[in-house]
Amino acid sequence: MDLIHNHQSIDRSDVSVTYFVVIASHRPDFIAMQMRSLRKFSIGRFKLIVLNNSQNARRAKLIESESLRLGALHYKVDFNDRESRASHLLPPFRFNRYRSPSLACSYSLHWFVKRHLMNFCGNLVFIDSDMFLVKPVDFPALLSKNSLYFIPQFRGLITEGQHEVMYPWSGFMLVNTGDYDLNIGGIQWSPKAQNGHATDVGGAAMTWLELAVNRTTTSEMLFFSILEFKNQNAKVSLNGNWNAEMHLLPDSDVWTFKSHDSLDLAARILKCDSSDVEDAVAKRLVEAIEMIEPTQWPAPLYVDLLSAPEAGLNDFVVHYKSGSNYQKWATPEYNSLKTRALTNCFPALT
Questions:
Q1: What pLDDT is recorded for position 161?
Q2: Across-strand partners of 47?
Q3: How many domains does the chain have?
Q4: Is residue 2 part of a domain?
């Protein structure tokens, strides 16, 4: 793969380059793994942009040195940028520390959009630091067909394909910055209550997304999660919105599920009829089991597989999930075992 090696060599008019924007806070070791996955599976020229968001001085230094060693563009997030702090919808800091993980994520992205987005032209991929490509992807080709690929987050009532609140998930989004109808510079990543419903990172982008869908060409992606897997029982999720418990019937290959959320919501995410949800979810679970061999991972499994169905890309990104260590079980021992399982399952990351 052809990497651009330094900041000065960037041709801002060259739309054949794909820029991957990642927030790094807790796992400096993931930077090398992510770079390996991009070198192996991202078709065409690319550059990794690391937003160093760590408020731990030692870890921030490790992130910087690792980024520079690997030839990534490194930006230390400016926690004191007055304009970014003032224009972020919710106050992100208290006593100069982030008030929550959600605000740490939204402020970093907001700061990048306000201060640095104008320096990059062409294809942009917002990607979590613990996400890794595991299949070949031609991002320039994808973004020549649609200007935006996003994973929708839903809140409120979902009936017959209609939604009360929809906004883009910040974890993974593909953008053609050259489409001015998209107005990516106008996105607001802050959480914000919408129609009386609490949201996470990107909730304030609901109106921006509505305009984008109406003005330009967009495509919805999805992620399938296996949260737990034990003794042929699984807890699964779609887009983090719809949850169910799956059970393999004895002496058969039939999976049944008990949904904790509306079938209309699952049907909206999967773009199928409600009557087809059970088969569709069971099929995804079988494919996921074959791909990641869940018995080899520590419990809880807690892994996402991302797909772009309209582009014919299934399970092309694996999301380690909880890489920021915010989950109570994400101990050093757990992370060590999970990282080993990840690299055993996907040797290209080593």
A1: 67
A2: 19
A3: 2
A4: no
- The CA angle 232-248-312, to the nearest 5 degrees, is 95
> What pLDDT is recorded for position 211?
96
Distance of alpha carbon 63 from alpha carbon 17, whole angstroms: 23
Listed residues 195, 220, 245: the one ending a domain: 220
Give the model's pLDDT for residue 4. Answer: 38
150, 273: one domain: no
Provide the pLDDT for residue 2.
37
Same domain for 309 and 257: yes
Please list the residues that pair with 295 across neighbouring strands.
none
Which pLDDT score is estimated for 13? 45
Between the two ends of the chain, the Cα-to-Cα distance in Å is: 17
DSSP codes joined into one string, 239-268: TTTEEEEEEEPTTSS-EEEEESS-HHHHHH
Same domain, 68 and 184: yes
Question: What's the rounded Cα separation, in Å, for the pair 269 and 286?
Answer: 19
Q: Which residues of the chain have pLDDT under 50?
A: 1-13
Which of 220, 240, 269 terminates a domain? The answer is 220
Single out the residue of 243, 217, 207 nearest to residue 228, CA to CA.
243
Angstrom distance (rounded) from CA 15 to CA 44: 11
Range of the domain at 259: 222-349
CATH code, 196: 3.90.550.10
- Element containing residue 283 per DSSP (H, E): helix 277-292
Q: Tell me the C-alpha to C-alpha distance, in Å, between residue 59 and each of 99, 158, 230, 292.
A: 19, 42, 35, 30
Q: Sort 227 into a burial class: Cβ within 10 Å, 0-12 / 13-18 / 19+.
A: middle
